[in-house]
Amino acid sequence: MKRWLILMLTLSLILAAAAGCAKEEKEPRPVEIPKSVGNPLVGVDGEGNLTYGGDPSVLVVGDTLYLYVGHDVSTNDVYNIPEYLCYSTKDLKSWTYEGVVLNMKDVSWGTADAAWAGQCARHYDEAAGKDRYYFYFCSWDKTDSGKQSIGVAVSDSPTGPFADIGAPVVKGSFTTDESSAWNDIDPTVWIETGKDGEEHRYLCWGNSKLYICELNEDMVSVKDVNGDGKVTMNKDVVSKIIPDGFTEAPWLYRRQDENGEYYGPYYLFYAQAWRERMAYATFEGDDLLGDYVVFEKRIMAPSATSNTNHMAVFDFLGKTWFIYHNGSLPYGSGYRRVACIEELRFDENGGVIPMEETAAGPFGTVSTLTAANGSVLQHAHFVNSGDDADYPYTRVALGSGLADAEALDGQWEIVQGKADADDVYAVSIESQNKAGLYITVSDAGVYLAQDWDGKQAAAQTFKTVEGLAGEGVSFESVLKPGLYLTLTDGALILTDGGDAQAATFTVGTVEG
């Protein structure tokens, strides 16, 4: 009898151990998959803290590019931009935070929370015998009935600090025939030696109305172009009309050949309509003060995450680039923005080829996700709305068969998990063509959504484990552990993984 009991006990232990092994085998092992690093370009300060900054502009000095943004610190839907920040790079991938270059508290005529769009230019100072740097900016003018005015601050370094000259270059009251108190914003500057052999220093700006003038060699005063002894509106400062509308954010640009010589038309990039599209026009001729401006086309739709947009167009590393802003960071919006980049391309006639804002940008990796049952993951196709009431996007459908097979709606950027920057098995999945919108788990289902309140990190993070079907990868929800993304019957849902084929994915790479 005792031997029988011992035998039964041994058998029970063996069966229990076998059951334990079977249970352990059902627990999928973590598996690491590659993450992409694309847009946005920046988004943190020197200590790694989340940092918003919009209205990007750039300056190239030798092998280094400097990026300037207005520091968004708003906690609601009202602009609060107290200062300008600078970042630098040599490859457009690795960025160094250079800090604050100009604080509005140091601008006697400006407003403390209104560091609106600015641009930096380099110019040789004959008197000083060296290059100096001129940062053109705009703010509400306390000395001019509260209108916006254009100012300039000067430094011996592109990283500042910049010192304001003490008064605006162009006061809002000077530009007559105004349609608002904020017509005088968003300065852009262009310096070039013309066909006449003389250097021309153009300053251009505007909202709803476009203004342009020449600067004196001192870079801080408007030139008396007609030589009548005084600077006057409509003679020395010219108001331009752009057919088919102009909103704000002008940026002057011209192409260069392999020898660095300028050629072709002058391009004027700008924001158009609301929510803001990106568009461009060209000047008919070589005299920016006198030539007619011709609208060409829109080149970027409204952002999926920001009501405004503002570009910088420049040549660097042998290509032409287009930096813009959106609200793709957590809690991002048109009041909490971040700089992104795309390559700008021209057609054979010099026309700008339209582009989309993307999550991966030029340097990230674009992926596809195909379930083991053959279904391809997509989000519903839609055109970003021009109506503020439609934002933020939080309930975009996810599934298969929602768009054309070749549509960008089935392309993704897989990035480090938003809920855990140190876990190599944590990922977030961002739409390639709706940057800032991620696959998001909620009690109502699984949707494509923006992290509109800055609290969706866990809902937008998944642990990558070996595919439940025996190959590939499965995505376990961090918000709801034990449940997996499952693509079945045309919809993306969360399940316990019982249908292993529908809960297992192959990650493909889209060649750029």
Write out key terms for the chains shown.
512 residues, four-stranded antiparallel beta sheet, elongated, mainly beta, disordered N terminus, Trefoil (Acidic Fibroblast Growth Factor, subunit A), Tachylectin-2, Chain A, 1 helix
Number of β-strand runs: 31
CATH class of the largest domain: Mainly Beta
| Strand order in the sheet with the most strands | 1-2-3-4
Q: CATH homologous superfamily name of the largest domain?
A: Glycosyl hydrolase domain, family 43
Unreliable sequence segments: 1-11, 13-24
Provide the CATH topology of the largest domain.
Tachylectin-2, Chain A
The shape is: elongated
Number of separate domains: 2
| Helix/strand structural class | mainly beta
The average pLDDT value, as a whole number, equals 94
Largest sheet: number of strands, sense, barrel closure:
4 strands, antiparallel
Describe this structure in words.
With 512 residues, the chain is mainly β. The protein folds into two domains: 52-343, Glycosyl hydrolase domain, family 43 (Tachylectin-2, Chain A, 5 Propeller); 365-510, Trefoil (Acidic Fibroblast Growth Factor, subunit A). The chain has one helix and 31 strands. The strands form ten sheets. A four-stranded antiparallel sheet has the order 1-2-3-4, with no helix packed on it. It is elongated and about 85 Å long. The N and C termini lie far apart (75 Å). The model is unreliable at 1-11 and 13-24 (pLDDT under 50).
SSE blueprint:
Blueprint lengths: L1 H25 L25 E10 L2 E9 L10 E7 L6 E8 L12 E10 L4 E11 L7 E8 L7 E2 L23 E6 L5 E7 L4 E5 L22 E4 L7 E9 L5 E11 L4 E7 L9 E8 L11 E5 L2 E8 L11 E6 L22 E6 L6 E2 L18 E2 L12 E5 L9 E6 L5 E6 L2 E6 L11 E5 L6 E5 L6 E5 L2 E5 L9 E6 L2
Antiparallel strand pairs: 1-2, 2-3, 3-4, 5-6, 6-7, 7-8, 9-10, 10-11, 11-12, 13-14, 14-15, 15-16, 17-18, 18-19, 20-31, 21-22, 23-24, 24-27, 25-26, 27-28, 29-30
